[in-house]
Amino acid sequence: SLFQVMTDGEPPMNALHGCSLPDENSSLSACPKEAWLEPAFTLAARTRVVVTSCFFMVAACSNSVVLYSVTRKRRKSHVQLLILSLTAADLLVTTIVMPLDAVWNITIQWYAGDSLCKLLNFLKLFAMYSAALVLVVISLDRHAAVLRPFSFANSNRRNRVMLSVAWVLSALLASPQLFLFHLYTVPGVNFTQCVTHGSFKERWQETTYNMFTFTTLYVTPLSVMVICYIRILFEISKQLKINQGLARGKDDHISKARMKTLTMTILIVASFIVCWTPYYLLGLWYWFQPDMIRQMPEYVNHFLFLFGLLHTCTDPIVYGLYTPSFREDMKMCLKGLKLTLTHQEKSLAVIVELKNKEDREQGRPRSSVSNGGTMHTAF
Question: What digits encode the pLDDT tens for the residues 106-128?
């Protein structure tokens, strides 16, 4: 189903011409063998793979720098702990969801065996749950910081508990994937896929599971985040009215620092909502009108899924805009990369020079290095 594509990045298990199969639990044997049309690596799928690969490189590099920037700080704050968990969740999505989605779209079939079929689909949903639930923890922390500022002393302990619950809950909510996914070979056709085909006895059971996943993965986190930030903005507007005309002092500087952190977290949550909402709404539409997936252009589904993955790239950008130390670490990493490349170029130049010397002694044409660092012959 489309929702499995939405949550797991699964390529379609079947593509039948002249057969009407509303879901993966429908019997394939009822369709004639000549009606089978094996899924192909289409232009839209190739584009998805290329864009996913680009997202992977950007997200992996930027989130790794965020991870390095946060862990190297001597003075740890409760906000840094939240950013660390968010970065870890984004790296899970980057290193599990993106590569598997790209490879699966290329191979179309599943070649990794039944155990990896179960494990990787569990890890993919676990990564997506952790990314959403960590954002919920961040929203609850900002809610407490603004509405209950005197509870700041217990914020570290509270956040550690909430983060532990978020990670454990992510694993529990994703655990059904270990039992639902398995290998399935189309009868009479040499085509094997990792699917949930046959795991649900009735259509309503699959719909109930999909609705449960949709609610826990998107609706509930979204509701908590929206409620938290609505209350935060309402409280801030109320405090601004109360504090109008008061002299500015040290407390005003502290409030500006907190407002800076609050703005950063609002942008991170907003990017999650903006990036993933269209894709989840598409899945919701599919449940009520299953036939629409046959009428929907293929590139629409690919584009909306890629737009959702874009969220893992936006988090480091938002964090960098509000964290000077991160920008310094990024510059240092780029400088180190530049020095490494310069050192490699110098080493290559020495090797070329030694080879030229040897060529001159033996009367052969000399070698040189082009601007791209490749060897060519110069006469």
Answer: 888 888 888 999 999 999 999 99
Local structure of residue 248 (DSSP, 8 states): P
Q: What is the DSSP letter of 289?
A: -
DSSP 53-69: HHHHHHHHHHHHHHHHH
Cβ-contact 66, 87 below 8 angstroms: yes
Pick the CATH number of 2-322 from 1.20.1070.10, 3.40.50.2000, 2.60.130.10, 1.20.1250.20: 1.20.1070.10
Express each pLDDT in 15-30 by its tens digit.
333 343 333 333 333 4
SS3 (DSSP) at 35: helix
pTM: predicted TM-score of the whole model, two decimal places: 0.74
Residues of the chain with CATH 1.20.1070.10: 2-322
Query: Torsion over CA of 364, 370, 373 and 374, rounded to 10 degrees?
Result: -50
